[in-house]
Amino acid sequence: MGLHSYDPTGARPGLFWWTRIPDESVTVHLGAGEAVMDLRNVTLFDWSTVPNSLNPAHPLGFASATMDLKIEWSGVKRRVHVSDSANGFAGDFLETSTAIVTATARTPSQHYELRTNPASTVTHFAEVGHDHNGSFFPGE
Predict the structure, then answer these.
(1) How far apart are the first and last CA of the chain?
(2) Is residue 17 part of a domain?
(3) List of E strands, the chain
(4) Distance between CA atoms of 14 and 121, rounded to whole angstroms?
(5) Residue 85 · residue 107 · CB < 8 Å
(6) How many CB atoms are located within 10 Å of the residue 35 CB?
(7) Count: domains in the chain
(8) Mind listing the pLDDT tens digit for each residue in 23-64?
(9) Distance CA 108, CA 87 (A)
(10) Which residues touch 107 (CB under 8 Å, ≥6 apart)?
(11) Could you tell me which residues come within 8 angstroms of residue 20 by beta carbon, excluding any fewer than 6 positions away?
(12) 47 φ, ψ to 5°?
């Protein structure tokens, strides 16, 4: 299954790719139909294999790693407003025609670097927006 499986969550069972994103790393202009998420030096764990990353005991261990990740959304295909009072969820979302992903992951102890080629990004579906849930749900 490969020699690298990156995940920023560490040993938190049941969560995949969850990490706090600093507010200054995200810019969203729903009116213009554009958004950018630009993260630098995110701390990751390289679990070596996907099965190891899904195992709470992690018998193969892990190596410290970092990642730079940039996603740029543009080209509005449609705008969607969702409101679900029963579940306390609402949001305004844009389905976009383009999401360009640029990522570099590094595992220094193994002298390994993975770098994407954003020119080869193929977008089949991309969505970005603002949602309100839990205590932030406006109760429409």
Answers:
(1) 46
(2) no
(3) 6-7, 26-29, 34-46, 63-84, 89-107, 112-115, 126-133
(4) 29
(5) no
(6) 22
(7) 1
(8) 999 998 888 889 999 999 988 888 777 777 777 777 777 778
(9) 44
(10) 4, 46, 63, 64, 65, 113
(11) none
(12) -85, 5
Q: Which two tokens stand for residue 1?
A: 């299954």
The pLDDT score that the predictor gives to residue 15 is 62
Does residue 16 fall inside a structural domain? no
Report how far apart, in Å, the C-alpha atoms of 113 and of each of 16, 70, 99, 116, 118 are.
21, 16, 23, 10, 16
Does residue 38 lie in a domain region?
yes
Q: Is the pTM of this model over 0.85?
A: no
Q: What is 72-96 written as a DSSP string?
A: EEEEEEEEEEEEEGGGTEEEEEEEE
List Cβ neighbours of 133 (8 Å cut-off, separation of 6 or more).
88, 89, 90
Does residue 76 form part of some domain? Answer: yes
Range of the domain at 65: 6-11+26-136
